[in-house]
Specification:
two-stranded antiparallel sheet; 13 helices
């Protein structure tokens, strides 16, 4: 636990982007199948009440801080995280390494057509990258065992080394937890909206907003009906941080 930050029910690995990339590449194509989760404030708040999500976090092989509030909290709690490591930034760096090392990648999730568009964009950007398959599961597929089985069979048939999972939280985390034992080898990485960023269907906040922790404002302006309520709920992280500070 010396290299982890405890925040609420999450044990976050104290790593920078280079170390996260090194570990992720080491998981790719290896047995057993491993999965990586990328918590932000919303995850930390949900963990307070969701035992199913806590089981996912306990089983995850790498937990990297996707949100700036987690980085700020780590400094207050005396175990500073080197930097924010987002799935949106880790994904393209993994694609570059996959192209260099000959690893096969699979794109799962996103709105209809987005994974196919992202495949074209990624293969153009990273010559030699092998995107061996894409899939856009229908809404509510996780409630239908036969649909989940079809998705797993398709992934197994494609034999990827890395599966980028863009199903949104916490659906993607719960799916990775269920899927990892059945896929036996490789890496599953939850990436949220990163597939849409790669496809160019959704704009990401300017770099300066990302650096000061204001990316949420940009995203909320793009999707206010979906995100306003979530961000209001996420203010509960202040109570969680205060609780952890009191413990220390």
């Amino acid at each position: 636990m010396s290299d982890k930050l405890r925040l609420g029910y999450a044990n976050i690995d104290v790593v920078d982007m280079d170390e996260a990339l090194r570990r992720a590449v080491s998981f790719a194509g290896q047995t057993p199948c491993r999965f990586v989760v990328t918590p932000n404030s919303d995850h930390i708040v949900q963990l307070e009440t969701r035992a199913d999500l806590r089981r996912v976090y306990e089983a995850a092989h790498l937990v990297i801080a996707d949100g700036m509030p987690l980085v700020w909290a780590s400094r207050l709690l005396g175990k500073p995280l080197p930097e924010r490591v987002t799935g949106s930034e880790l994904m393209p760096r993994l694609c570059a390494e996959a192209a260099r090392l000959g690893l096969r990648v699979y794109l799962l999730g996103g709105p209809p057509g987005v994974a196919d568009l992202a495949k074209v964009k990624l293969e153009e950007r990273y010559p030699g990258l092998q995107v061996c398959g894409t899939d856009c599961p229908p809404y509510g597929f996780e409630n239908h065992p036969e649909q989940e089985a079809r998705i797993l069979q398709k992934i197994q048939a494609s034999a990827p080394d890395i599966v980028f999972v863009a199903l949104g939280a916490p659906k993607q985390e719960l799916w990775m937890y269920r899927a990892a034992p059945q896929l036996k080898s490789g890496l599953l990485l939850g990436i949220g909206a990163a597939l849409e960023f790669c496809a160019g269907t959704v704009r990401r906040a300017p770099v300066w907003m990302q650096r000061i922790g204001a990316e949420w404002i940009f995203r909320m302006c793009q999707q206010p009906r979906r995100l306003v309520r979530r961000y209001l709920r996420d203010t509960e992280i202040l109570l969680i941080i205060f609780r952890e500070w009191r413990k220390r």
